[in-house]
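Proteins fold reproducibly. Take a tokenised chain:

. . .
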Amino acid sequence: MLVTDGILDREFQPEYNITITATDAGSPSLSSVKVLTIMVNDINDNPPTFKQSKYDANILENQPVGTFVMKVNAEDIDDGSNSKILYQISRDTNSEVSSFLTINSETGELFTSRLFDYEQLVHFQIKVTARDGGDPPLSTTCTVNVLDINDHAPVFPNKDTPVRLEISESAVVGVQFPLQSAEDQDVGQNALQNYVLSPNDNFILKQHANPDGSKYVEMVLQKPLDREQHPHLSLKLIAVDGGTPQRSGTVNIDITVLDVNDNAPVFNQSMYKASVMENTMKGTSIVTVNATDADSGSNGLISYSLSKMKGSAANIFSIDEITGTISVAGQIDYEKDRKYEVRVEAKDQGGLTGTSKVILDVFDINDNAPVINIMSFSSPVSEDARPGTTIAVLNIKDADSEKNGQIKCSIDGKLPFKIDSSLTNYYNLISDQYFDRESVPEYNITITATDLGSPPLSSSTKLHLKISDVNDNPPLFDKNSYSAYITENNSPGVSIFAVSARDSDWNQNARISYLLEEIQVNGSPVSTYVSLNSETGVLNAVRSFDYEQIKQLQLIVKAQDGGSPPLSSNVSVKIMIQDQNDNPPQVLYPVQTGGSLLAEMVPRSADVGYLVTKVVAVDVDSGQNAWLSYKLQKATDRALFEHPNPDGSKHCEIVLQKPLDREQRPSLSLKLIAVDGGAPQRSGTVNIDITVLDANDNVPVFNQSVYKASVMENTMKGTSIVTVNATDADSGSNGLITYSLSQMKGSAADIFNIDEITGTISVAGQIDYEKDRKYELRVEAKDQGGLIGTSKLHLKISDVNDNPPLFDKNSYSSYITENNSPGVSIFAVSARDSDWNQNARISYLLEEIQVNGSPVSTYVSLNSKTGVLNAVRSFDYEQIKQVQLVVKAQDGGSPPLSSNVTVKLIIRDQNDNPPQVLYPVQTGGSLVAEMVPRSADVGYLVTKVVAVDVDSGQNAWLSYKLQKATDRALFEVGLQNGEIRTIRQVTDKDAVKQRLTVIVEDNGQPSRSATFTDFTHDKEYNDRLTFYLVLALAVVSFLFITCLVVIISVKIYRWRQSRILYHSNLPVIPYYPPRYSGTLGTGTLQHVYNYEVCRTTDSRKSDCNCIDREQLNTELSLSAPWTASQLFQQ
């Protein structure tokens, strides 16, 4: 037998493993082993034990009923039902105190059952008993202290409105500024204890106490204020109480420091340097000075002026008293002053002045032309002067400086002179070759002096130089020899002819005298025949000549000038005597004697041509004078006789020896001389003009092979561009030219035409630079004979700003994801301009419009060159869905052209907001509890989770999932609607408390989620239910009988009172207390209402109607003396 040897303690050792060995007494002995496991059964010998003997908790007053306060926890080391612990508030706790709290018998959690009021109950103590499930049950007690906490913070009267103070910066140290006091509803140590001022350098706090113990505070200035360093001070006044945890209230103090004029204007530079060109136009800005005044208001307003300036500077410069811009007010001349020093003053409205100095350097421009002074000039100059002879000395000066004052001197034209510079600014005009007065008797010399400025300036002077004569040319006769004729029988002294000589010299050297050289003619001096006028050179006959005696005279004439020494020349003169018909013919045959007539016999049969007779006559004269012609002066019948010319006739033929060219020589002049055989010889001349007739053998030729011209686009029709010119060497109709344009490609034929007569090419259509930037035209010149000459015209089209920029699209749409980084590039607009160069240079502008009350520039910025839109801020889709703006593209033409485009920026949602659970409402860290009856069927709606996501689109699609559950097989959550339903019948085996954690997840990438924890409680149905039902039925029956007796008594009493009041004349003043409602209990649809009704004694006669009996589904409590049934009866 196995017996115990001591007291067993299951809590110490719940089981024993015993090894039993049985051994016999044999030899050798044999044995066997058996292991026994003994389980120790539990008895209820250990009471529950609290982990703490005393619990403390703090709770805010006025917390709603059901607020979690704390949790007590006890342990029982027994097993099974002996260790199952139930909690309850001990009955020895004050009943009034215990009515404030309820305890969960299973968990030990304490909840409020009434509203706490700190002013009525500061703290209280209750006892909690933990009882196990043994038989008999064991229990233990702990003490719970519930204390009020510091739930009121000090509050300033106007905590949302900052205290505003205006303090002059000249305020003295120690001045005090009272501040408003804070109030704290708490009392004692939790009440207001102290004030604290935020750290600063200027103010400290000084606290005072009122007779009632309250505190007030003043702010004291401990360091002078300086508005220029800190124009505004923002301080915080903090009121703190003495509670735990400590609470505080704050009010902002905004201090505006008022300005005092204690700062003089200060220039940003002690000295300014600038430069200005001379002759700068009046009003031109040179430099802008800038001074600042640390003061504000009128003390900081600055006016600029120029202090007293020396010389002419006061009339040359002025300053804008507002902007400080120094500009030109007079004439700046570099040659007068090369530098100016100006003193600038800046004065504020308080009279304080700051100064600075401005140094202005004047830059020279080429505004002075060289000045030419003639120091000496020699005129006339002898023509035998040697090369290098100084003609004139010039002094040339230029008032400008450097290159603008450097001079280059030159002579206009090709003249035999040159300029030599000997000294600075002195120039010599010297001869470069020998003079010849006879070739050039005088010179007009233009001397030009040009400086090296840009642009260069020049001046010139003219010298009139005369060349004096030297007798270096003898007289020259017009001919190498002279021949003259004189008719015989002349009168003595008659003028025969004149010789003529010229002398290239001048004045006396050119005065000519004519002399007759003495020679012998037929043994007599020549002077006996002729005389010579020494001044005119006229030869006169001294005697009457007879041709039959002398035929000619040969003499020499000398021409001598008046120079020293004189120069002369000779010429041979031949004077021929011409015969005069001074002798009549004499008839030699037939001889006629006396006055008788000669008779000739002529036969009748004489034929034509028959010779009747021959008359022979002679003349002692010669030549033509001796040629005899016969004329029939008188005749009976003139047709019967003729006198043929015995000399006959002669002719001259002109024969062409080579081809003629009209273009080289259109006409020829020939002089034909006919010479007779007389002596002296006489001749006759005839002029023959030969005109060469034209043939079409020359093509029209343009004066340029290629013409170049330019024309602006959009030039008006009919505007002349260029005139071409062609010539034809032919004449007449062969030289008439017509112009035309040929072989024009594309639209050129419609754009240009040419005047066929003048050759002027003009505009005939629309010129568009954007279609064609140049044209090459072929011009033809055609004469009347059909020959054609050609030339080219290169026509360049100049652009005109006639095309506005055009965007690629009529409107733009772009997307940007919210939460972008400021400055990120969104996208770019693009515009094109068909014009060229500056006209096609596009700038992008953002039209100022309002977006949600703010300028669009606070949302986006636009790069004016690239058209790239950048975000200025980070967008939030939940605040703004899209931004609509207008972008303007403007070209650089004059005037500029522009076009607008609408840009819509659509903000894309980003999954940046997690779902928010709206229902059930979960306050603080508490869990939401729901009640589920054990009789709930499959699909019973426990509750519905309602959540929203402020995102949009896919990011706002919510799905509900059951994340954690005490029993996943009991509940399910609708994926889309969030409904929590049972998926099977609730059984007694299911835990009374089911903890469900629901996760609400959106559909964004990455997804965001929120969780919600719910407690479900089964309504208890335990073994004691019958006992409690019977007990409740008995109590209700007792109460019903008692109420019935009371109601009957009250009705009798009221009936008696109403009789007294109804027949009396006392006024009745009804009182209607306010109705209030509170929320009690837990559940999905919590509707528990409290009604309080008070009625007067004569209310039975009123028209008051109450709710129907069927509508009363809530708990109803009525103040005495009525019950619910009496209320319905009323």
User: Anything to note?
Assistant: The first strand starts at residue 15 and ends at 23. The radius of gyration is 73 Å. DSSP finds five helices and 79 strands in the chain.
